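Blinded run. Sample ID left blank on purpose so nobody reads anything into the name before looking at the predicted structure. Input follows.
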Amino acid sequence: MSTEVTTAFVEQYTANVALLLQQRGSKLRGAVTEDSYVGKAGVPVEQIGATNAQKRTSRHADTPLMNTPHDRPWVFPSDYNWADLIDSPDKVRMLIDPTSPYAMSAAMALGRSIDDEVMGAFFGDRKTGENGSTTTQFDSNNVVAKSVGGTNTGLNVAKLRKAKRILMANEVDIEMDQLFIAVTAKEHDDLLGDTQATSLDYNTRPVLVDGKITAFMGFNFIHIELGSSRFENASSFLSSTDRVLPCWAKSGMHVGIWNDIQGRITERADKNYSTQVYAEGTFGATRLEEGKVVKITCHGTT
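Blinded prediction complete.
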């Protein structure tokens, strides 16, 4: 017997997936800038480079003309979708419950897709120029070596200090711009072993909250298992002996949304009229400025 799927079910399912996506799906979406787009590509911002004023040294001198540099970072979309089949009419009714495992699974999957796009943009090539035809590689000057703080070390305070130094030297306004670092359980544990990170002898207030470091040295910590096989771009963060961590200013990373979370519930005649639960989204990400993203190299992958 087929199950009638109502419009209300579809609307409630879509709302639940979107709600769960915001609450538990993507870990990185809130740590980057965001905008909506249509078409084949988007330009998040028209970038105007720095120039210097010229001192006037004589009367009635010629007016100086400055060559103001311009650039355009581009973001390109990728399509993602998710689906599952449901046989039981009782399970269909669960779709309007915000705790539905189907809504939760869809939200988690699409949230990881957004994170995967952001992860690929941290250190990958980005497209710039008038029409996006110029390839800009990650700046090798913005790398913290694994030897900082000791030979072949994991995450430590010395590496965080070096990362912050790079950002400040690149003239990132650390007082106005939020700073983030993505860490795995391994690097979080490494930092717990650094006395300077956890001891009140070095800090004016406790850093640990329920045994977890959430903020330290001006960085907001985001726990995400960068090397997980669930992420397409996991290999960008792992080698045979090392792992790299992205450290960035919020204004330096951007996610573009072409199609935010859309949900559908339909009957599949080719599947004995089982109910298909479907969700989709279209996203893309890019670095906006090279000086606002740092790569921290840590020894050890397990």
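Unblinding after everyone has recorded impressions. Residues 36 and 257 are 5 Å apart (CA to CA).
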